[in-house]
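Q: Start with the shorter request: fold the first protein.
A: Done. Sequence, then structure:
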Amino acid sequence: MSAATAATVTAPAYPSSRTQAPPGPTVTDPALVRRAVKAAALGNAMEWFDFGVYSYIAVTLGKVFFPSGDPTAQLLSTFGAFAAAFLVRPLGGVVFGPLGDRVGRQKVLAVTMIMMAAGTFAIGLIPSYAAIGVWAPVLLLVARLVQGFSTGGEYAGAATFIAEYAPDKRRGFLGSWLEFGTLAGYIGGAGLVTLMTALLSDGDLMSWGWRVPFLVAGPMGVVGLYLRMRLEETPAFAAQVAASEAARPRVPLREMVAGQWRALLLCVGLVLVFNVTDYMLLSYMPSYLTSELAYDETHGLLVVLAVMALMMVVQPFAGALTDRVGRRPVIAAGCAGFLLLSVPALLLIRDGSLWAVGLGMAALGLLLVCFTASMPAALPALFPTRVRYGSLSIGFNVSVSLFGGTTPLVVTALIGATGDMMMPAYYMMAAAVIGGTATWYLTESAGRPLPGSPPSVTHR
């Protein structure tokens, strides 16, 4: 059975116009849609398992790879290696995005899965600074660059994959499972680190315990690759190929950027607020609680784990809400919430008591759900099928590299330079202003066909 017929009952050919949709509807098979969502979400979970582990064990990694008498310098060095991966993400997006538009989404997502798992597994094998000296941080940096390059094609591809499979009226709900995978990966990584921290002595954690979470990535990657290799191409891409008589012309990079400049600007603004708040809460806050507020490490990790579990429960319902009320109102509510509540939430966190920290973190987590539930459906809808993977990869990764992934490093440096412990709140407020501006100019996409694709309905 071909990719086009396996995923659809009707997949008519249509002109290769950049934005004009074909006349007939695409009828999706619910079983294939569920398989596509699971495979895409698992890959995203794999990516964020690594980021969760790296962020939550950052203090230990600083001691292993960057020995120094200054804990702040160690943390800055560790987050510097963390941020370095984001510098090559745009390069990965430029390579994998256009390739996904040319050879297919499924093939590229299989390659990114292999590279992500290999990079994470390799970190667990690197000798310490005490064993091989300066080569230890060099090898850590190389592994992070491999991860960053692969993730340049991961999120945009996974979001595109789900969006092109999903029926128009359920794209928000189905897309929300992509970020459900993100949260599951974070919880898996953070939970494993918390368990290791609680059960092992400081000496055991420093000598070998820190390696275990990274080595787990090997078998996880094998499972994810198996699931992705079993998938068929998306209906939208299959129809695009059929429309061009099986020819897959190369789309110039100029068309992906200059031809989509307005959508790219909106993408950068939306991804900025999404990722600054995401990395602030899920990556930076554990280290902020431990290093800046001298909060007990295990209790801090447990609080963040509880917040992520709460977000997972709310996530699918929030995704379904975007199908009913639209993406714009939900994203706008998140921006307004971060603008008004970042300072009160951080003041609660700085109070230090368990209930105050939990309440402040829960408030930020629920506001973040406004973005995690909306963006996987809203971002692919910015671009037509012909350039969707490529343009979204470029816009997403440029924004993440400049603003999202650098958040822990920048905020740590700002606190060190100014001594102002409220810098995380101010940073989130600035991001909310930019995201709110982008939302103002965003066209509502809920319940509508993707640009360049026919209407998509569920086979009953």
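Q: Next, the second protein, separately.
A: Sequence, then structure:
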Amino acid sequence: MIVIDAASPTPPYEQLRAQLARQIQDRSLAVGTRLPTIRRLAADLGLAVNTVGRAYRELEEAGLIETRGRAGSFVSAAGDQALEQARRAAFDYAAVIARVGIDPTQAIRIVEAALGSAPTP
């Protein structure tokens, strides 16, 4: 179930993207699951079509979903690969932080700052 909080400072497309990504990663949405069309999900959630389209594009760029033309958008098996790539990067980062002696709390702030300033695909 997707819930968009209109009062949240987080933009609706990001709320949608994050919730779908979480459902894909925790396997609530299994590989191969067909997602609702952009228009249908936009209508169901009371969002603009472009808002849902942006969330889908970002999920596709992250490898979590794939679009198969007129057949629709589906949860991708590549999502497992993207998650594994992120895990490897996190382990590598943790090793660097330990090696250079940066406090874990500071290391997390560095990551949060990097994520906040990352260009939006």
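Q: Describe the second briefly.
A: The CA atoms of residues 58 and 121 lie 7 Å apart. The helical segments are 12-25, 38-45, 49-61, 78-100, 104-117.
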